[in-house]
């Protein structure tokens, strides 16, 4: 799966270097086979299930700078984003360069108004998160967006200062919902396979 992210990065023409940060030798080998470099192995303290994106990218930038390489803009592309495209990466790069922002990140819209979301109580009952919107028509509610989990363009200053990605210093790169599927669970994987087949069937 990581090959799709590497190939999209290569096709975008945006990058002087495509680096994979990993602590896994098998992933490193696959990354190199597809044209990425693995100049360092990620340290254990940045390789657990709780480490965020920003510290990982900050580590990569610091490693490059400590080894005599200057960096201006950096894009984090997730390996679990099989629908990332070179065109979207270019749009993100253009936004970062021309919008005066700290980050440009992929986003997509929620399929249903979040204001009418429900939860299930400990007693098995249905409750609204925002009951004040019970009488509001769905079409009258503000559209909501979420992180598409594909890529984050950022300035070196923003990464090094660990500026929060979700804030007023960031601009969205909007993606259609049918090209967004983060993969964290088996169910995500199955849905991604169906989406992949559908998109390939349409020549996308």
UniProtKB/TrEMBL annotation:
Kinase keyword on record: no
Q: What InterPro entries does UniProt report for this protein, alphabetically?
A: CMP-NeuNAc_synthase, Cytidylyl_trans, Nucleotide-diphossugar_trans, PseF
Which molecular function term from Gene Ontology is one that the record holds?
A: N-acylneuraminate cytidylyltransferase activity
> What are the entry keywords?
Nucleotidyltransferase, Transferase
Keyword Acyltransferase carried by entry: no
Taxonomically, the superkingdom here is: Bacteria
- Signal peptide feature range: none
Query: A Pfam family in this protein?
Result: CTP_transf_3
In Swiss-Prot or TrEMBL terms, this protein is called Acylneuraminate cytidylyltransferase
Species for this entry:
Marinobacter algicola DG893
């Amino acid at each position: 799966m990581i090959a799709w992210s590497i190939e999209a990065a290569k096709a975008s023409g945006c990058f002087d270097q495509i680096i994979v940060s990993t602590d896994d030798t098998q992933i490193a080998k696959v990354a190199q086979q597809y044209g990425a470099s693995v100049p360092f192995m990620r340290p254990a303290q940045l390789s657990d299930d709780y480490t965020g994106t920003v510290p990982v990218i900050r580590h990569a930038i610091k490693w490059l700078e400590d080894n005599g390489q200057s960096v201006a803009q950096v894009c984090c592309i997730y390996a679990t984003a099989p629908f990332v495209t070179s065109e979207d990466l270019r749009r993100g790069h253009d936004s970062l360069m021309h919008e005066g922002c700290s980050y440009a990140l992929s986003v997509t819209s929620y399929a249903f108004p979040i204001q009418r979301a429900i939860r299930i109580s400990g007693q098995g009952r249905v409750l609204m998160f925002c009951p004040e919107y019970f009488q509001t028509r769905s079409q009258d509610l503000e559209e909501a967006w979420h992180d598409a989990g594909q890529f984050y363009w950022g300035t070196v200053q923003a990464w090094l200062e660990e500026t929060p990605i979700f804030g007023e210093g960031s601009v969205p790169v909007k993606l259609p919902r049918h090209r967004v599927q983060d993969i964290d669970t088996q169910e995500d994987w199955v849905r991604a396979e169906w989406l992949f087949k559908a998109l390939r069937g349409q020549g996308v």
